[in-house]
Write a structure and sequence with these properties.
The chain is α/β, with parallel strands linked by helices. About 45% of the residues lie in helices and about 15% in strands. About 35% of the residues are buried. The C terminus is likely disordered.
Length: about 450
């Protein structure tokens, strides 16, 4: 196995060391990142995640502990060596873009190559080629003032890649973007990781972005509390098989070890509903969804709180979207009651003729999501899969396989997108419907 490309051990970074306003930003943080990993730094504001990123960049020297990048301590470098390190080994993307308005898009992207002594014609050709990778070549002669936020950030992504660095750092790169632009930028980062094999580290407050990562590094109070592997990604780091999480509830319980099962269920629904809310909106949405999960608010009142503007105590989701979100939440909660009833009977071996009715109701969702015509055999196999998944007799992967495999090979034969949508929905039902005994208390 390859050696870590970044390694930090007992890392401490203190601002204003020895002064009255001394502040310890990190407290003995320890972790390893391997070549080709996509890592998400996740945690509340002030937890130390940005501090560690800028220490890796070479601009915040540790007060104590060890930091190695590609096996070397950057802070042992001479001035010239540090410049080479920061321009060739590291690429960085900022939330605020930091493009120069008086330079064209091409010149902004090519700028780092000036310090490498690259000839003007050569760096201009290369800059345009990099811009083309991210769908921005047609804007090469424009100036930053004429671009949208999403376009500006894709130019910034291109600039970060112009010197072909080994490591790409992204500090809240979608913090100023709308939902469409956010998806475009995240897709660009994923492409850099998968196609170029670059190590990508992203700082984010958006839980929806954690799905892009191989591992999530969860920080709190200046410490790396844990790294959580993403079971949907083939791992690069050596992971204890017992720590590969198999259900979303288990994933969430690892990331949030001190909250109640009901609070975990709320986070599960929030992850399902929102891709582009900012941190404050998500917190507000969690508060109202907690009331919905506990059945302390009606669907009508829940929808009203989602529509109401944030400054007036609501979420500010907008009318049509709020209606769709409310319908999704209460549909999940209503069907989750069937899952709970089914699970109680299953675990107590107490099945009566109503068992079949419950499975029929839960299977209707699959059938309704499929736009074509299903044969009687396909419908029967869907019911069997739903029964087996809710009973815990098959894994998520086996459920997906059963829906995907062709009918003549014993499956249902649904298309990939339908299978993905159905599986996501049923995993949410399982989280809401399985009665938890609690954890972390």
């Amino acid at each position: 196995m390859a050696e870590p490309i970044i390694k930090f051990k007992d890392l401490e970074i203190t601002y204003n060391l020895g002064k009255e306003n001394e502040f310890k930003a990190t407290r003995g943080a320890t972790g390893e990142i391997y070549p080709g990993e996509f890592i998400a730094f996740f945690g509340p504001s002030g937890c130390g995640k940005s501090t560690i990123m800028y220490s890796v960049l070479g601009i915040l020297e540790p007060s104590a502990g060890q930091l190695l990048v590609k096996g070397e301590n950057p802070y042992s470098f001479s001035t010239e060596e540090m410049v080479r390190f920061q321009t060739r080994t590291i690429g960085i993307i900022y939330q605020a873009f930091f493009l120069i308005n008086s330079l064209s898009v091409t010149d902004n992207v090519a700028l780092p190559q000036i310090f490498q002594g690259i000839a003007p014609a050569k760096r201009e050709r290369w800059a345009r080629q990099i811009l083309g990778r991210f769908g921005m070549e047609q804007y090469s002669h424009k100036y930053p003032d004429n671009l949208s936020g999403g376009q500006l950030q894709r130019v910034a992504v291109a600039r970060s890649m112009v010197n072909n660095p080994d490591i790409l750092l992204a500090d809240e790169p979608t913090g100023n973007l709308d939902s469409v632009s956010t998806l475009q930028v995240m897709a660009a980062l994923e492409k850099i990781n998968q196609d170029d094999g670059k190590t990508v580290i992203i700082i984010t407050h958006n839980a929806a972005q954690l799905a892009y990562a191989h591992r999530v590094f969860y920080f709190a109070d200046g410490k790396l509390l844990r790294s959580v592997p993403n079971p949907e990604k083939k791992q690069i780091a050596k992971i204890d098989k017992q720590k590969i999480l198999v259900t979303e509830m288990e994933r969430l319980s690892k990331i949030y070890p001190y909250i109640t099962p009901n609070e975990l269920k709320v986070k599960s629904i929030i992850n399902y509903l929102t891709q582009d809310f900012d941190f404050d909106q998500i917190l507000r949405l969690e508060q109202f969804t907690q009331l919905a999960v506990e059945r302390k608010i009606s669907q009508v009142d829940y929808e009203k709180t989602l529509i109401r503007e944030y400054k007036h105590g609501g979420v500010g989701a907008g009318g049509p979207r709020a209606k769709a979100m409310a319908e999704k939440v209460y549909k999940i909660l209503d069907q989750a009651e069937d899952v709970t009833r089914f699970r109680r009977r299953f675990t107590n071996n107490n099945f009566f003729n109503r068992e079949d009715k419950i499975v029929n109701r839960l299977s209707k969702y699959v059938i309704s999501e499929y736009k074509g015509t299903l044969s009687s055999v396909q419908k029967r196999r869907i019911k069997e899969l739903v029964y087996n998944r809710i009973s815990g007799l098959v894994s998520k992967e086996e459920f997906i396989k059963g829906l995907s495999v062709s009918e003549d090979k014993g499956g249902v034969g649904l298309d990939k997108q339908t299978v993905k949508k159905i599986t996501l929905y049923y995993e949410k039902l399982l989280v809401q419907g399985i009665e938890s005994k609690g954890h972390g208390h």
